Amino acid sequence: MNILFYTAGDNGASWIDALSRELPHASIRVWPQTEATIDYALVWKPPCAMIAALSGARAVFNLGAGVDAIADAPGWPPEVPLVRLEDAGMAEQMVEYVTYAALRCYREFGAYEAAQAAAQWSVRPRLDKRAFGIGLLGMGVLGVHVARALVGFGFPIMGCSRHRKELPGVTSFTADQLDIFLASCRVLVCMLPLTRVTRGLLDRDTLAHLPHGAFVVNVARGALIVERDLIAQIDDGHLAGAMLDVFENEPLPAGHAFWHHPGITLTPHICAVTSIAQSVEQIAAKIGRLEAGLPISGVVDAARAY
Known about the structure:
Elements: E1 2-7, H1 12-22, E2 27-30, E3 40-44, H2 48-51, E4 59-62, H3 68-71, E5 82-83, H4 90-106, H5 109-117, E6 134-137, H6 141-151, E7 157-161, E8 170-174, H7 178-183, E9 187-190, H8 204-207, E10 214-218, H9 227-235, E11 239-244, E12 264-266, H10 276-291
């Protein structure tokens, strides 16, 4: 079995070490080293020159949950299944991050930090939890995990997705009900994949449907939000602020307005870091099923790019 590997990250050696242990009989080559026949490819943000070499592969595994970096790549062979990671240790981390962001907003810890900086002893009235709706825009594997965790805190929880998802304690909306969904969100958590349809979805007009004083959390892809419009909505006082882990350009440029904006808390794309060991275990199991002629989950729908 021939496996072609490439990652744009700096952890390639760790991936290859884990692959060698999990698939000891496989011949692993690192791009641009190639074999006459490539059975499987494991990639993260592959260069355009590599795309053409994938046409004979039985499957290409993306080393992450988001496939936007390659789903629309020019020359992508449509006959080759593209497979994304499912969870691989990310769900628990995502739950932790979003729960913290929601509770930080609800308990107004940002306001208390500002009061401390001003040496002010100022007790704020408790917000009504029953009126503090938390909305998850995107209800894929990770979104479902987050929704289930937040239900236990007693907040009204809403989920919006292309198809209605029925989960206990979660009010479900579909994409054509986006405006209604947004109007109920004191905290909007963006968990959508980045596609041609969702790029720039959260612009000034869309964000305006959120209630006054709402808070935006983005743990998906930076390009889902029009950054200048987000800043404008915060500066105008319509939005209370945002907590952002992803950005249109990463690393975030040194002169970007987000760095020192008082209404924005940011982290460097760490909300859910891929576990190499769990990812390789998952990939090896799926390769085993493909070798046995069995179906696998996580295959990307080419028409929807997720």
